[in-house]
Amino acid sequence: MKRMPIALLKIPTDLLRDVFEQCNPLELYCLSKCSKRARKSLTLRDTRDWKISYGESKKIWIWCEEGEYNFKHTTNPDQYYKISFSWPQSGPSMFVDLSDRGDLFNYLLETFKISIVESMNNDDQDIDFLRQTARTAIHRNMEVEQVTLYNMENTRDVLDFMPILDQMKITQNFSCSVRFPSNFQHQFIMYPNEIRIHNSIWFNIGQLLDCTCVKIKLCQSMLSNQEFDVFLQKWKKAGTFPNLRSLEIWSKKIDNESPILEMIPPINIVDNPLIKVSFGKRDLFEISEAVRVIKDDGTEGWLKVELGEWPTFEFLVVSPGNSVVAEIGQRDEALNP
């Protein structure tokens, strides 16, 4: 039976919207290439929760209600617009020419009116594309959930990028493993929910005291016992660090020479068993053999300081309003000097 073509754009608006709601991003992308009018009509589709991201090998993907949809690079015209599946690792993929993936990135933003970037990074040592997409996000006032800065052979490129980073609206996570020069300084203007910084010598006590994150992890730090004591003394005051739930710092400066809250490291109580605290579906934290610290408003914190090759400072905050304690030791000593 011969199939009759459908004058899709002549369908009433309400029905056309319903049709588009049944289409995934790859199908809608193909439709957008048919004509300017077809592309413009795609604004009928509700894309408020859509997110865009990119990764290695010039891949771009879109997240929507149905899952993940990928655009993969090919220069073979015979492969254009073909779909491949790689379940369960990822969703369906379409092959397109991504020689200049910035063009497709901007095309998808314009076509689908996407307002959230799921993640940005300098993978493949590609700081230029990160700089390009970051400026686009700033210009369009987009939310950027995650930014990851991997270490690069040419640190100068990352140094030049940092002023751009300050202008971005990063909401969820910032991760950095760049080995900056010893004289590097940077002050965050706005903090996301979580920061993870390796080679964190440049993250000083002033930044820690100003930090508004929920989760903080610093590796290769140079914070000292005295600075940890200053932090905890401030934390104990009512109204300070209202967001903080988890703090983990590896620092060579932690020693057994000076006290933290009048205790000489290592700081722990061997008989205290494992404590598990949940702050939501994905955030589960554990700490064992910890010492309880009481805030002026009654909030509980759990502190553990270990020595060794890489001494560690761990601090877990239990907030009655949004935390669930799955297991907690009964034998402990509340510290509230």
TrEMBL record:
It holds the Pfam family F-box. It comes from the Eukaryota. It comes from Caenorhabditis briggsae. InterPro entries: F-box_dom, F-box_Sdz-33. Residues 5-53 form the F-box domain. The lineage of its organism: Eukaryota, Metazoa, Ecdysozoa, Nematoda, Chromadorea. This is F-box domain-containing protein.
